[in-house]
Amino acid sequence: MEPFFGTVVFLIGIVLNNWVSSLLLSRLILILTMIGIGFLIKNPYAVVVLTLLLLPSRYIYTPVGKDMLRDLRRFLSNRAMIRNKTYLTLVGTAGIFLGFALPAIKNYPISISVVIVVAIAVIYIVEYSNEKAFNDRVKMVLGNKSDQIEALKIAYEKMVLFSSTDVDDLIKNRIELFKNVNEKRKVK
């Protein structure tokens, strides 16, 4: 029965991690979710897989927001983050390391909890610096232009060099998704 509750904790952690807009609160939810998974699931390989899915979950799926520009900014920032090789390497290494360490939390709760907090803090620093760099690039481009969508496009192109993805299509598709979701919200 414990693996079932561990899976439930994992799913609740992913939902809350995506729902919260504050990066710091998201990391706190992540720490609590990982501790819960460590206590409830004994199989280290399953914990590794769940940890590897949990750590970047905030950037894999971006829920549609209520304000179009803030939604587009968060979406492009998340896309830039998930394409950052430093972030992916750090998350992969930390996910494997923490995944194998988490089942031992029953025997060494303080030590493993400290390791979790330190690993999440390092990941938080990388996420915060990338998010700040993206916002700074947007502000820098906005100083020269008045169009915020164009500024987001240029900032994304500067963050993700040599990308084969067409940014115009990304923005156009996200705006269409935003309009469709808002129409459905008004109908309800």
Question: How would you characterize the overall build of this protein?
Answer:
The chain is mainly alpha-helical. Helices cover 81% and strands 0% of the residues. It is built from 9 helices and no strands. Helix 6 (85-101) runs antiparallel to helix 7 and helix 7 packs across helix 8. It is globular and about 55 Å long. The chain starts with a helix and ends with a helix. The model has no long low-confidence stretch (mean pLDDT 87).
How much of the residues is beta strand, in percent? under 5%
Largest sheet: none
Q: Based on CA inertia axes, which overall geometry fits?
A: globular
Gyration radius, in Å: 18 Å
Task: Give structural attributes.
single chain; 81% helix; mainly alpha; 188 residues
Strands, helices and their partners?
Elements: H1 2-19, H2 23-40, H3 44-54, H4 57-60, H5 68-82, H6 85-101, H7 109-144, H8 148-159, H9 167-187
What's the quick description here?
The protein is mainly α and 188 residues long.
